[in-house]
Amino acid sequence: MTDTPSSGAPDQTEWLTTSGGVRLRETDRSLKAGERGPTLLQDHHLREKITHFDHERIPERVVHARGAGAHGTFTAYGTAETVTSAGFLAEGRETPVFVRFSTVLGSRGSADTVRDTRGFATKFYTEEGTFDLVGNNIPVFFIQDGIKFPDIIHAGKPHPDREIPQAQSAHDTFWDFVSLHTEAQHHTLWNMSDRGIARSYRMMEGFGVHTFRLINAAGETSLAKFHWKPKLGVHGLLWEEAQMLGGFDPDFHRRDLADAIEAGAHPEWELGVQVFPDTPQQTYEGIDLLDPTKLVPEEIAPVQTIGRLVLDRNPDNFFAETEQVAFHVGNLVPGIDVTDDALMQARLFSYVDTQLTRLGGPNFNQIPVNRPHAPVNDMLRDGFHQDEVHRGVAPYHPNSLDAGCPFLAGDPQGAFLDNPVRVPETAKQREQPASFDDHFSQPRLFWLSMTPVEKQHIVAAYAFELGKVHEPAIRERQLQCLAEIAPDLCGGVAAALGLTAPSPKGELADPDPSPALSMLGGSYPPD
Ligand code: HEM
């Protein structure tokens, strides 16, 4: 449970008051010079009411603006204790959580059922401090390096001239980007599948996407990817359903989540990890674990479940909780650490930076929904919206003046210093590993793992989307990408568009396909 804000709660008194707590005699009519006015500037109650209203809005999130949240509890099975010392993963430990689900590209008032990636962000209020698992419902990402994030988002957001959302008008910028940056093809293929139009937040998987580093009590490290598995299974909408719901009930997903919780049908997930040895190469079966456009198939690295999440309480106030919650990839607890994934590294900077603007200054961790459930003793002081009344005269460390905290030692079990990973001797550079250039083998595996009906949906989705692209060169370049993924996918989309399918120029032009082509037990070309 987070604390309930005390000021301004409407049920504290039977009287209406000013924000200063003074009982009001009248709040429906302003003070005027005579019955017919004009209104007097002297009416400071009028001014307080209007001024506060004038400042009710804060900036929406630059991405993931549209979302819905819920409170719940995470209970650990204890099965992760061999790989991580994180206290909240010890057997039987119960931790309060707040989860926010979201779409990525739409504005705060956009429709829930659009084709998009979904956010799945979880704040664990652990006894060792806050741990945020800020994931998505798709296990890979569009880009390999965070420096490209503004570019992909600029390409995906509504066109800057008319601000008409992509799905209703030209799709040129998005398809321009992903056909030029072929590393984005894998994520895009997941978006074009039924995963891109989730039926319910309750029926989505969640993925941490990046590889994390886990550290156990003995100081041994391993690499790991986090997975959420929904109890209700994974389900998508049909495209026609998504379109109709977008019109009839743009709030479909947030209503579904809130109604289910209110009705006692509490949504549940299991948290799982894929664990890999922490080798200097940071690869597993040839897959680069620092490349967030790649997943590790569960067939070769099974997901081991480590706990259960139940969402059982709707927020009391959307703005206070769902809108003001501030997730941060750097909210980590001892036993869980980041890796050098260049996407993850950029995220470590981005979240706090954007929240400084979005939440009006540096004290947003004091907002009730963000407040840690562990004692806080930082040396951070003052700033806008400072709610703490700090005592003492010496907010610096070490100090010899303040009673109770003069020479506080760092906790040897504390975060951030327990993982002395060696940085190889190397020159500063902007290059990336050669394996990062393989952009098509994993989307091909995904395509080959689909059932015939799922393939039909994917072909129809590409045909619809590319049918909206105005610039023929962009459409052709994207068709070429599909040819590199799988000629039958490309052929199906080209036929639906009345175009000729291009031939593959890359690996598939080679008569001896690589072993990766049969990794999921699929043969290529497919039977
Ligand atoms: C939200 C940046 C990649 C998942 C956000 C926000 C920013 C951001 C600025 C808004 C935060 C706020 O206003 O509080 C970035 C950058 C990325 C990146 C720079 C790449 C370099 C990712 C990836 C994932 C992800 C790979 C998934 C694994 C989310 C989620 C939210 C979010 C779930 C919504 C959090 C909420 O519900 O409040 N991101 N992001 N992002 N991001 Fe990212």
Automatic annotation (TrEMBL):
GO terms for biological process: hydrogen peroxide catabolic process; response to oxidative stress. The keyword Oxidoreductase applies. One of its GO terms (cellular component) is cytosol. There is a cross-link at H328-Y351 (3'-histidyl-3-tyrosine (His-Tyr)). Belongs to the catalase family. HPII subfamily. Decomposes hydrogen peroxide into water and oxygen; serves to protect cells from the toxic effects of hydrogen peroxide. This is Catalase. The chain holds residues 1 to 527 of 669 of the full protein.
